[in-house]
Write a structure and sequence with these properties.
Mean pLDDT: 79
Number of strands: 9
CATH superfamily: SH3 Domains
Keywords: SH3 domain, Signal
CATH topology: SH3 type barrels
Strand content: 25-35%
Protein name: SH3 domain-containing protein
Low-confidence stretches: 4-21
Order of helices and strands: HEEEEEEEEE
Shape: globular
Number of helices: 1
Helix content: 10-25%
Distance between the termini: 33 Å
CATH class: Mainly Beta
Structural class: alpha+beta
InterPro entries: OTOR (IPR042801), SH3-like_dom_sf (IPR036028), SH3_domain (IPR001452)
Length: 132
Amino acid sequence: MDKLGCLIVLAVSFGLLHQAAHTVRMEKLADRKICADKYCSYVISVAEALEDYIASDCRFINLKKGQMIYVYSKLKPVEGAGVFWSGSVYGDRYMDQMGVIGYFPYNHVNETQIFEKKTIEMPTTDMDFFCD
C-alpha cells in the first residue's frame, strides 16, 4: 500500500475511533417497540405537538406547540416508565430540525393522520438508545 493509501486508512480509522469515543450508551426506555416495518423506516402517522417540550437528553427532540411530527415508532411502556414515540419534526418553519429523529412523550402530541394501521411489534436494541 502506498503512503496515500496508508494515510487514508489511518484517517478513517481515527475518525471511527473518535466517533465511538463520543457515543454514549443511555438507559433503555423500553424493551419493545411498534413500527410500520422491520427497520422502523416508514412513517406510521403524523402528529401535532399540543405543547412545547424541551428534550431532557440527546435521545429526545424538542417540540414546539403546533409543530407537525412524523412518527416512526412507538415504544411499549416499561412498568413505571413513561410512554415515548420516536419521530422527526416536519414543516418549513423547522428546517433546522428536519431529519433529526428522536423520542418525545406521546401525551404531548395528537395523532392527526395514520398512514400504517398494520404495524409490527419487535424488541428494541441498545442502538435505539445511543447518543452521539
